[in-house]
Amino acid sequence: MSNSTLIAAEAGSAGERFRLAGRPRLGESVLRGALVACGWFVLATTVAMLGFLASTGLRGIGEVGLGQLLTSDAWKPEAGSFGGLALIVGTFTSALGAIALGAAPAVLSAVWLTEFAPEGVRRGYRRVMEIASAVPSVVYGWLALVYIVPIFENVAHAIKGDDAPVTGEGLGAAAFLLAVMIAPTVLLLSLDALSRVPRQLRDASAALGASPWQTAFQVSVPYGWRGLLVATFFGFARAAGETMAVQMVIGGARRLPKDFLFSPTTTISAQIVMDMQEARPGTPENDVLYSMALVLLLVSVVVVLVTRAMARSQAR
Amino acid sequence: MSTARLHRSQRQGASTEAGLKRLLGVGAFAMAGVYGAGLVYLLARGGSRLWSLTAYPTPLSGVDNEVAMRFIVAACLFGILGWASMSVVRWGLERTGRAMPKRASRITVVAVAALGAMFLRDHLPRFLVSLPSETKAGGGVGPEIFNTIYFAVLSTAITLPVGVGAAVYLARFAKSQRFVGAVRMALDTLASLPSIVYGLFGFLVFVVQMKAGYSLFAGAFVLALLNLPLVVGIAEESMHAVPRELDEASLALGATPVQTVLRVTIPYAWPGILSALVLSIGRVFAESAPLIMTAGTTISRANAYSLNPFRGGETLAVHLWYVNSAGLAPDRAEVSAGTAAVLVVLVGLTNLLASRFARFGGAEGPRTKKATK
Questions:
Q1: What is the spatial distance between Cα B363 and Cα B231, in angstroms, rounded to a whole number?
Q2: Which residue among A29, B43, B145, B155 is least enclosed by CB atoms within 10 Å?
Q3: What are the pLDDT digits (tens) for B102-153?
């Protein structure tokens, strides 16, 4: 058998395996078309998603009025009063509280891991945190409901007296829960950011006589601070968008929180899940939920796009 | 000289620095300790629920496909048991300097799984195979486990072709820069949306517009969308990591671009793609809010184990929420603990799998070896 027939036979069998035999051009273009279709699918669903939400949400804003939606604090769908201020305040304060509690320990642990910890410790630590960040949020919510809320209740009774009408559910418990939930994510992202610090920089610093502590906090952290900030922002976005876990511990009172620790309130996403089950599609009660989702969407899109831009500028 | 050697070769800074460093270390360890202990505690607490074994039939059995479900659960359970014990045996052998043939351990695992499924399927942990109970004690999570796995299969069936297709297109075939930019922008936006927004979209399209009611398909579609940015991102990255020479060699041999992608690029990048898919399955296990709005919170006795994707049904995560916020069963603390333990096991397994797949990448991967044989 000559060489050329061998090659021809090979090509033929390969063609058969792709069911292109005889008509390679057709199969080729069909597959190419399918690939382009995948790209269009991504684009089309995103546009459709934003379009559906925006049209329904804007209808809700049109019915209620942007002013009332953003500034009134009376959310009483059954009475036709839709003031989203309590929801917005609840979302932001719980997420900010979570960042205040959870971000610093996570970032500092990441610094310790990359700068001072031995390699084996780092790998094990990472594994634990990866699983912790993948644990479903409802599991965190349930744990908080069973263990954190009673602690908050006892503390509240100790501070406010035994007859005070507190249940422990509220903003403080929600912020604590969110802090526990986002810390692994923030830690993992911070680790990635710090591992991008070039070795040469650390070596140079050490060669100049800096102690490890000085190298860590005067070279690595300043170099990677954008990455650390990105990690914190992502934590914020995750905390603000979290739904079920927060819904379980925040109390579900549709009013502005009176104090930061013990007063029950609600968040945008928790209220959407609760009200969605009762609101009939097409009614203002329903449309307004989409308007609130639009607010949440705008916030998280802006946060994430800003962080992405920052991450890219760091990469350069 | 490495940084560590440099550091060791000079004085360790002032004593305050050493103290601060120790403080930082203690804090970091405390943090990891809390999470690790929490995970162990979840497993231990839920484990007590799992250990109650009962012979069948129980009052809650006798549903369609229930026997098949028990068979599969038994095979999985005993497969995992066999795999774990074989790992221990192999580790012990390796420590004494002997090796165990791969085939032997594989055959053992399969045999243990098959034998367990054949003979012990009537003596499984009752919690894992019985139906949930709304008001009485003693409910299980059998249909929830089934739905969770089924969701993973359904949504992967959408994510895999679309995600890999889009990644291939972006990495290899895209001509118009404007279109690529638009798709990337769309993916960035998708990645930044809170999951509740996906739920609202699914509710609006499937439940309101199409009047299809709650269905597994709607939930799976929404979850597939949710996972697209992750899968496309990692798949594209691992395709960019394929050495240029490989693709060029394939093209130079006369293969068409599509053949090159199918026979060279994707096999080489496969481990990365696979670990992305496994990670996305982990997110399917964990997600609850969008599923409540698209697939509902109920289990119907009639089609608890039905393969029909256009019925509603809840997953483990949704069940955990539902039991705590609306459940009336007197043993709901125990049910929650068991459900949480099963979830943690599932999530841990997916993480283990993902890191295993990510490890054998590139030219050493089994898939590449098979394709280039």
A1: 21
A2: A29
A3: 788 888 888 888 888 888 777 777 778 778 877 777 777 888 888 999 999 9
A207 touches chain B (CB under 8 A): yes
Q: What is the pLDDT of residues B17-49, one digit of tens each?
A: 888 888 888 988 898 999 999 999 998 888 877
Burial of B39-74, coded b for 16+ CB within 10 Å and e otherwise, reads: beebbebbeebbeeebebeeebbebeebbebbbbbb
Structure tokens at B306: 């039905």
Q: Kindly state the DSSP code that residue B42 receives in the 8-state scheme.
A: H
Report how far residue A114's alpha carbon sits from residue B340's, in angstroms, rounded to the nearest whole number.
32
Mean pLDDT across chain A, nearest whole number? 82
Give the separation between CA B315 and CA B149, rounded to whole angstroms: 9
Provide the token pair at B258: 């599509």
Does residue B125 sit in helix, strand or coil? strand
Give the span between the Cα atoms of B19 and B15, in whole angstroms.
Answer: 6
Q: State which residue of chain B sits closest to A234, comparing Cα positions.
A: B192
Selected for mutation to probe chain A from B2, B3, B9, B370 (highest A CB count within 10 Å) is: B3
Which residues in chain B have their CB less than 8 angstroms from residue A211's CB? 7, 10-14, 17
Q: Which phi and psi angles does B125 have, rounded to 5°?
A: -55, 125
